[in-house]
């Protein structure tokens, strides 16, 4: 997928998730979190005040550590299409 088109689709997916109000499963949220962090080149540590949540987020990032930026965007978009938009 072309980089500009991929970036555009990724941002649309992010905006869709940010505006989504129904509850989502925790495992899906953790995958989205990890792919978003990688895709947006955000290397900051999880910032939750709850240590257990930080541990889950860190684990999600570890599981996705070998994913490239482009692949993270593609995986994020695919998750949104398959797991969230299918519910509508």
Outline:
Residues 6-88 form the ACB domain. The chain is an all-alpha fold.
What does this structure look like?
With 88 residues, the protein is mostly helical. It has one domain (3-87): Up-down Bundle (Acyl-CoA Binding Protein). Helix content is 68%, strand content 0%. It has four helices and no strands. It has helices at 3-19, 26-39, 51-63, 69-84. Helix 1 packs across helix 4, helix 2 (26-39) crosses helix 3 (51-63) and helix 2 packs antiparallel against helix 4 (69-84). The longest helix has 17 residues, at 3-19. The radius of gyration is 13 Å and the shape is globular. It starts with a helix and ends with a helix. 14% of the residues are buried.
Descriptive terms for the model:
globular, 88 residues, Acyl-CoA Binding Protein, FERM/acyl-CoA-bd_prot_sf, Acyl-CoA-binding_protein, Acyl-CoA-binding_sf
Outline the secondary-structure elements.
Layout: H1 3-19, H2 26-39, H3 51-63, H4 69-84
How many DSSP H or I helices? Answer: 4
User: How many structurally independent domains?
Assistant: 1
| Percent in helix | 55-70%
> Per the principal axes of the C-alpha atoms, what is the gross shape?
globular
**Distance, first to last CA:** 26 Å
At the fold tier of CATH, the topology name is Acyl-CoA Binding Protein
The residue ranges in which pLDDT falls below 50 over 5 or more consecutive positions are none
Mean pLDDT over the residues: 94
CATH architecture descriptor name: Up-down Bundle
- Main structural class: mainly alpha
Secondary-structure element sequence? HHHH
Number of strands: 0
Global Rg: 13 Å
CATH class: Mainly Alpha
Largest sheet: none
What percentage of amino acids are in beta strands? under 5%
Quaternary state reads: single chain
């Amino acid at each position: 997928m072309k980089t500009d088109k991929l970036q555009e689709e990724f941002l649309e997916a992010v905006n869709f998730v940010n505006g989504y109000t129904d509850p989502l499963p925790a495992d899906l949220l953790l995958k989205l979190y990890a792919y978003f962090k990688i895709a947006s080149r955000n290397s900051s540590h999880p910032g939750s005040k709850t240590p257990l949540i930080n541990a889950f987020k860190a684990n999600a990032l570890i599981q996705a550590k070998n994913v490239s930026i482009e692949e993270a965007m593609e995986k994020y978009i695919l998750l949104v299409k398959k797991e969230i938009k299918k519910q509508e």
